[in-house]
Amino acid sequence: MGLFQSFNISASGLTAQRFRTDIIAQNIANVNTTRKEDDEPYRRKVVTFQEKRVTPFSQIYSTSKNALVGNGVRVSRVTEDYDTDFVEVYDPSHPDADENGYVFYPNVNTVTEMTNLIDATRAYEANATAFNASKSMAQAGLQVGKS
Amino acid sequence: MDITLLNRVDSNYLSNIAKEQGLRAKDPEEPFSSVLSAMMNSLNETNELQINAQEEEIRFALGYSDNTHDMMVAAAKASVALQYTAAVRDKLIQGYQELMQIQV
After folding, report:
1. B80 touches chain A (CB under 8 A)
2. What does the pLDDT look like over B74-86, one tens digit per residue?
3. B8-53, pLDDT tens digit by residue?
C-alpha cells in the first residue's frame, strides 16, 4: 500500500542507525585490542550510508510519486579507517610490544566514538519521531468528516 | 435533481483520469461490485499486514529479531490498516442504511 511509504522510509532509517550503533559499540569494545589474526592492531570501522532508490524494475509499476520520494536509506558499506594512525605507547612488558618496546593500540578515539554514538542515538530518535508523526497523520486523516 | 446525474462524470479531464486509473466500474450497471471488490482487496491487504505483525512478534519472542523497532513498525502498519478498513466498512454500512431508509 502506498499509504505506508513514509512508514517504510522511517523504518529503514531506524535500521540503519541501529546498525551504526552496532559498529560504534564494536569500535569502543575493541579500544584495547592490540592484535587481531593478522598481527595488526584493531582498525576503527566507519559506516557509510546511501540513499535507497526505487529499483528501475519496480519504478515501471510504481506511481510517479513513489519514484520521486525513494525508499529511504541503506548502509552502503563498512570501511576501515586507514587515515588515522595507530596510537603508539611505550610498554616493553606488553606481550605485543615490538623490539623497541612500543605497543600499537587501535586508532579508536573513545571521545569521537561517544560523540558518534550520541549522534546515532539522536538520529534514531528523529526517525522514531518521524514515524510517529506519519502514523498520527494517517489516523487524523481517518477522522476527517467525523464529528 | 435527477439522481442518475450523481453517477455521471461530465468533465473530460476527470473521466480520462478515471479511465487511466481504472477507477470506474467496467460495467456501469454494476458500480456496487467494484466498490465491494475494492473493499475485499483492502480487507485482504489488512489481513496480510496482520499476519506480518504476528510473524514479527513470533520472531521477536524466539529471539531471531535483531532490533525492537521491526516488530513495532509491523504492528503500527497492521493497526493503521485495520482502522482504515474499519472506516471504509463504516461508510459502506452507512450508505446501505441510508438507502434502506428511503420511503417508497
Report:
1. yes
2. 999 999 999 999 9
3. 555 666 666 666 666 655 566 677 777 788 888 889 999 999 999 9
- The structure's pTM equals 0.76
List, as own/partner pairs, every contact residues B75-78 make where C-beta atoms lie below 8 angstroms and the sequence separation is at least 24, other chains included. B76/A7, B76/A131, B76/A135, B77/A4, B77/A7, B77/B49, B77/B52, B77/B53, B78/B46, B78/B49, B78/B50, B78/B52, B78/B53
> B83 and A139: CB-CB below 8 Å?
yes
User: Which three cell numbers mark A65?
Assistant: 510519486
Residues 6+ apart with CB under 8 A from B10: none
ipTM of the complex: 0.75
Question: Which one of B70, B76, B87 has the shortest CB-CB distance to A135?
Answer: B76
A83 φ/ψ angles, rounded to the nearest 5 degrees: -85, -35
Which of B69, B77, B87 has its CB closest to that of A14? B69
Rounded to whole angstroms, how far apart are CA atoms B104 and B102? 6
**Rounded to whole angstroms, how far apart are CA atoms B22 and B16?**
10
